[in-house]
Amino acid sequence: MPNSPVIVINTSPLIALIAALGSLDILDSLYEKVVVPLAVCEEILKGGKQDFAVSEFQEAKWLSKENQPIQISQFLLNSLDLGEASVIQVALNQEIKTVCIDETVGRRVARLNGLKVTGSIGILLKYKQQEPSLSIQKAIQNMISHNIYLSQNVINFALKEAGEL
Hints:
Low-confidence stretches: none
Number of domains: 1
CATH superfamily: 5'-nuclease
CATH architecture: 3-Layer(aba) Sandwich
Radius of gyration: 15 Å
Number of helices: 10
């Protein structure tokens, strides 16, 4: 759980956090600035199933939503989806040290680029340190009920770290 005042975040953690808690307010309480690349904004606003997470994303006016496309390295574009590639490129361009990506390959590529990595579970665990009443187990149940995939290893790790196992 990197400790950085600024973070660049991908689509899946945004959706997972909304599924877990019903809003993105957790990010506002943990970070001074949360940067959302244009490609991620576009992915969220497409809405997916029943426009899930769109209204919560739009209500989070404090998010630093990029509105300009960026030049992304060919390596990132060939290795990752556009959202993950954008997250890493924005972090590198703006010298932001920490990214929030849930997908394994994206996390690996971010680390190879010298970035610190967290994910939706890492953010929940970081918040639990500030707010001990947060139930990680309930948050995970909410995520699963919204079809957010979490491996059993990730679930066990989260519950153990939270002291809920």
